[in-house]
């Protein structure tokens, strides 16, 4: 049955999201759910991704395993880098031939963030820095305008996984409704989402630090914004909730001018905190 293709930098949370999807479909459907990926094949990442022929052979093995498992009864999740658009096109052709729907889940992180997660892994699970940097450099970001990258769900690290939207896209054969993970982005969508995540996090940290010395009524300056926040006591849980709401709204109304994000977020907080 349907194929879900995971996509993203090394150490961007793909396996976690794949497991969340698997658990959801096992709970809500009677279908078998198979995760196909590097780990299941016992891939030695640093060996495979250092050798173009080995990498090509691994992609072929993954594709063959997907082809074997895709049928009218199963849900298949391909948990691998899938960073080459030509390879994603091959997977699209495979599902087209099998007459089954597919979708792409892009776990979006910055290179710096993924690198930190990589370093925090067990030594045996880590990519070497050279291999990691090379994979990030070669990554070809998905574009929902390409039929092989659509439907596309872009998921940030703090996002609630779009489980129902993915289910609708696969089983109802219609585009999922707009939400925080499925939006029409500007041409620089990857950069926009990264900047949105980073800038809003920086603003929250500035507020958190300012709370230690500020009193109600003070005006707090935050990085990248000319607007100031009128200080009122708020806990981090409330601030994070407002941040998630702002990110959700911004994904539905993206702007090419990332320099405006900080001011927009400050204005949003001033309204939400009063």
TrEMBL record:
One of its GO terms (biological process) is tRNA modification. InterPro entries: KTI12/PSTK, P-loop_NTPase. The keyword S-adenosyl-L-methionine does not apply. It comes from Poecilia reticulata. It comes from the Eukaryota. SUPFAM superfamilies: P-loop containing nucleoside triphosphate hydrolases. GO terms for molecular function: ATP binding. Gene3D superfamilies: P-loop containing nucleotide triphosphate hydrolases (3.40.50.300). Keywords: ATP-binding, Nucleotide-binding. This is Protein KTI12 homolog. Belongs to the KTI12 family.
């Amino acid at each position: 049955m349907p194929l879900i293709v995971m996509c993203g930098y090394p150490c961007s949370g793909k396996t976690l999201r794949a497991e969340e999807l698997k658990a959801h479909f096992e709970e809500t459907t009677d279908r078998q759910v198979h995760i196909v990926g590097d780990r299941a094949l016992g891939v030695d990442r640093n060996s495979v991704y250092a050798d173009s022929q080995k990498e090509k052979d691994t992609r072929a093995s993954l594709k063959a395993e997907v082809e074997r498992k895709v049928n009218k009864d199963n849900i298949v999740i391909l948990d691998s880098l899938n960073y080459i658009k030509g390879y994603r096109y091959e997977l699209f052709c495979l599902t087209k031939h099998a007459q089954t729907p597919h979708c792409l889940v892009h776990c979006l992180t910055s290179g710096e963030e993924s690198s930190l997660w990589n370093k925090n892994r067990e030594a045996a699970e880590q990519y070497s820095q050279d291999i990691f940097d090379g994979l990030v450099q070669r990554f070809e970001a998905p574009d929902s305008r390409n039929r092989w990258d659509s439907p596309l769900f872009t998921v940030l690290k703090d996002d609630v996984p779009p489980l129902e939207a993915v289910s609708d896209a696969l089983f109802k054969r219609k585009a999922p409704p707009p939400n925080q993970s499925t939006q029409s982005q500007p041409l620089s969508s990857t950069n926009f989402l990264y900047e949105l995540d980073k800038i809003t996090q920086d603003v929250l940290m500035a507020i958190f630090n300012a709370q230690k010395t500020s009193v109600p009524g003070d005006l707090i300056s935050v990085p990248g914004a000319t607007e100031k926040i009128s200080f009122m006591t708020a806990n981090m849980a409330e601030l994070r909730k407002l941040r998630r709401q702002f990110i959700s709204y911004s994904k539905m109304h993206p702007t090419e001018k990332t320099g405006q994000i900080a001011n927009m977020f400050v204005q949003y907080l001033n309204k939400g905190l009063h």
